[in-house]
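Task: sequence design from structure.
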């Protein structure tokens, strides 16, 4: 009997740990942080219909390898089948764990948002992804991306020079850590009743199953 319990206890611990990764606990502290409004607040503009019943909240880093792979391989299909059809909306929040260059790229995306081109700039960053901590994010490269999408460079650079969005990005990053985000990409997929966490660049099938559950 003792051997039986020794075998069962680790299994149960593993099951509960897996459940924690999928469903956030609804303690008073967590529920106050994880309201729909709080999760969306301060992030990117919404991609898709703001009234879509399911939200994907992506936590990403512009230098992150697996974030790049998600944008290259999976997001396009989700966008075509679910976002453009009004079933799902997407919000991006910055989690710049690869250092100052990632922070600068995130700031640049919000400077582009000042000119109404957040998603165009966001996509340009991932189109030109050059690896993690390889030095591809520079003021010159960020200006090149801005030129590609026809931003006003003087306004864009003035925004970066004065660090207009540096505190905003840092606050988003801290909020992510506070609610348990510890890797990129990470996704919180939710409706008004349930939040499901997806960690890493999972295949499309994982997202489809999650949509079904919600």
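Answer:
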């Amino acid at each position: 009997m003792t051997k039986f319990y020794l075998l069962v206890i680790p299994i149960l611990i593993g099951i509960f740990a897996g459940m924690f990764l999928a469903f956030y606990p609804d303690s008073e502290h967590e529920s106050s942080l994880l309201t729909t409004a709080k999760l969306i607040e301060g992030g990117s503009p919404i991609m898709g219909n703001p009234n879509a019943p399911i939200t994907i909240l992506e936590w990403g880093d512009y230098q992150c390898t697996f974030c790049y792979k998600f944008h290259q391989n999976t997001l396009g299909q989700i966008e075509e089948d679910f976002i453009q059809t009004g079933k799902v909306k997407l919000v991006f929040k910055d989690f710049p764990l690869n250092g100052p260059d990632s922070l600068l790229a995130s700031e640049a995306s919000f400077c582009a948002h000042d000119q109404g081109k957040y998603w165009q700039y966001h996509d340009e960053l991932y189109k030109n992804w050059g690896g993690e901590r390889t030095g591809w994010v520079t003021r010159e490269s960020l200006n090149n991306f801005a030129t590609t999408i026809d931003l006003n460079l003087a306004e864009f650079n003035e925004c970066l020079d004065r660090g207009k969005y540096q505190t905003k990005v840092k606050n988003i990053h801290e909020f992510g850590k506070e609610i348990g985000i510890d890797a990129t990409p990470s996704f919180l997929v939710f409706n008004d009743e349930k939040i499901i966490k997806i960690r890493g660049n999972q295949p499309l099938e994982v997202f489809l199953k999650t949509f079904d559950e919600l």
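Residues 1-23, 25-31 have pLDDT under 50 and may be disordered.
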